[in-house]
Specification:
Oligomer: single chain
Structural class: alpha/beta
Helix content: 25-40%
Largest sheet: 6 strands, mixed
Shape: elongated
Number of strands: 11
Bound molecules: adenosine monophosphate
Number of helices: 8
Distance between the termini: 32 Å
């Protein structure tokens, strides 16, 4: 077992927010993460390292205990569906929603609709719970285009301000889940490295409430 604790952070829009939060609890990377191609970073604390990964990979690295802690969006955790980690804290960053959206004015729908999303598991679960049979179409970006072009009748996507939906003539039909950034902890690390992990959780809790 390594002698240090590793925290996995999510690349992209939430990274500056996560780094700002870590700075408030006295944890700072030893170099500028945005200017480096490295994936693992030393910090000002000898007992802590940071890893910068894609969202889904944060959950996977924490699930397998390679990273002890992770900071990840709830959307990714719902989609990942892993069970090797606890989710002790809502850090309250990068707030948004996962919602079903469709065209503002839509023609008659067929009995079995098509739903485009990158959140295939979330969408499947949502429609299964409602006992509605749908065809899910996996997309990797620009979900809003799907109803406009006729690829799908609905999308399941992240909405923050709603501006992207509006700009494409779409409206929210139902909110599936409120999303924000969460702290996750590997279940085994939580037990075997409690003395190092719990103070970090406490400090982050204090900094976010
Ligand atoms: P908005 O126009 O503000 O509703 O933003 C919606 C677009 O930004 C969608 O295409 C989303 O995929 C993306 N987006 C907004 N907020 C987030 C977030 N917190 N995490 C990931 N993607 C987001």
């Amino acid at each position: 077992m390594s002698t240090y604790i590793t925290i996995a952070l999510t690349k992209g829009r939430s990274l500056p927010l996560s780094l700002e939060l870590l700075a408030t609890i006295g944890v700072e990377p030893a170099e500028d993460i945005s200017k480096s191609r490295k994936l693992v970073f030393d910090t000002n604390r000898e007992d802590l390292k940071l890893m910068v990964l894609r969202g889904m990979d944060v959950a996977t690295y924490v699930e397998h205990g390679i990273a002890d802690l992770g900071i990840s969006g709830k959307d990714v955790l719902l989609e990942h569906g892993g069970d090797g980690y606890y989710e002790p804290l809502d850090l309250g960053l990068a707030k948004c929603q996962i919602a079903v959206a469709g065209l503002k004015t839509e023609a008659q729908l067929p009995p079995r609709i098509k739903v485009a999303t990158k959140f295939v598991n979330i969408a499947k679960r949502y429609y299964a719970e409602k006992a509605i049979q749908v065809d899910i179409i996996k997309l990797y970006g620009a979900m809003e285009l799907a109803p406009v072009t006729g690829l799908a009748h609905r999308i399941v996507d992240i909405v923050e301000t709603g501006n992207t939906l509006k700009a494409n003539g779409l409206v929210i039909l139902e909110v599936i889940e409120e999303i924000s950034t969460r702290l996750i902890v590997n279940k085994i690390s939580f037990k075997t490295r409690y003395a190092s992990v719990q103070p970090l959780i406490d400090a982050l809790e204090k900094a976010t409430t």
